[in-house]
Structure formats: C-alpha cells, structure tokens
Amino acid sequence: MRILIADDEPELLELLKLSLGNNEWIIDTVSNVEEAKHYLDAYHYQVFLVDRTFHGKDRVQELINYGKNKNLLMGILVLSALGSIDEKVQGLEYGADDYLEKPFDIKELRARLIALARRFAPTFLQLHGFTIDTTKQIIYQEETKIILSKNEHALFFFLLNHASIASRDEIMDALYDNPQNITPNAIDELVARLRKKLHPSMIKTIKTRGYAVEI
Fold first, then answer.
1. How many domains does the chain have?
2. pLDDT at 186
3. How far apart are the first and last CA of the chain?
4. Are 101 and 135 in the same domain?
5. In this structure, are 16 and 108 located in the same domain?
6. DSSP of 82-136, one letter per residue?
7. Residue 23 belongs to what domain range?
8. Tens-digit pLDDT profile for residues 1-33
9. In this model, does residue 35 exceed pLDDT 90?
10. What is the pLDDT of residue 83?
11. Cβ-count burial of 130 within 10 angstroms (0-12 exposed, 13-18 middle, 19+ buried)?
C-alpha cells in the first residue's frame, strides 16, 4: 500500500514515516500544498493523510478536492489539532473519509489507515494479466476462469485481503482447522502451486517474514 502524508510539521512527518514505513507500506511525505499536488499527480495512492492547516491557512478542502479528482478510490484521512465537533463535521463535509484529532495513538492511526484502504478497495483488480473479482472471489485470464483448489483459493484471497505481510503461522491459522499439524513447508508448496497457475510474481516472498500480494 502506498500512502501520502501532507503536513507542515517536519518532526511529525519524520515520526510517521519511521512508524508506518516498512516492507509493507510505502510512505511519501510532503510539507506543503503544491508538493502534495505534485505527488498526487505522479503516483497512485491508496490513502492520503492530510493536515487541515498549512502555515496557518486551512487548505484541506483544496487538497481533498484535488486528491479525489485524481483518484476517487483513494481514502482521505484528515489529521488535525482542530478537534471540535464542528471542525470534524466540517472536515467530513469537505469530502474527507475519516478525521483523527492530534495528538493521536499510532496504533489507532494504523488501524484507521487499514480500514480506509479496505473500504476503497476496487471490486475488480488487474494483476499480471489476470482479472480478479474481489467480491465473488473469482480469478479470470481473459475470458477463462482459473480453477484453484480449496486451499489455493483460500490462500490467495487471504493474502489479497491481508493488509500487510502474512507470516507462515498466520497463513496456517487462517487456512487450517488444526494448524499445529501443518508444516511451514506445506505453505511454501501451496504458494509454489499458486504461482504455476497464476503468475510467478503474483505472490511476493518477503525474506524471513512471509508472503504478500502487492496491489
């Protein structure tokens, strides 16, 4: 997932980049409105995290409108010290999808970002020449439906819907009634079979950490 954060506090930008950025998420940070617009032009973001004010001026409606015009399926979260009920309502009326008052807990922020990304996930995805119907959980290559085994199907859509990298233990817990009877090698073999039926790069191996489907 790629996230853009726009705020005029350099210390906060650095903190958020360190706290949120890892192998799972790509975090871009900007400190002014024009730079934010430049990044929105250049990249596709799942979530846009934006402060209400820049150097004392409320520019959030301008940025929300600009972001939504670029990508209607991008979730926008306003992060602001302006936290009265009226100010929150105003931010949402401007078109924001969520509003979080400063100061905040990083765990709550992360949970809200994940929820926004899921909320705006498209019904159909195009990945490596395949069309994925995320509602019906069907995969097509051109007009042909790809037939997967029960466990292959469960694994692929678990990874697709997982907000971060899934460890082998997480996969075993999700797929099997008795995961204690399953070896990590069984997961590796299941991934290998999926790659043969789909595309070798569809499922990424994150060294020592597990697997992920990158959208």
1. 2
2. 94
3. 7
4. no
5. yes
6. --SHHHHHHHHHTT-SEEEESS--HHHHHHHHHHHHHHT--SEEEETTEEEETTT
7. 2-119
8. 789 999 999 999 999 998 887 656 888 999 999
9. yes
10. 77
11. middle
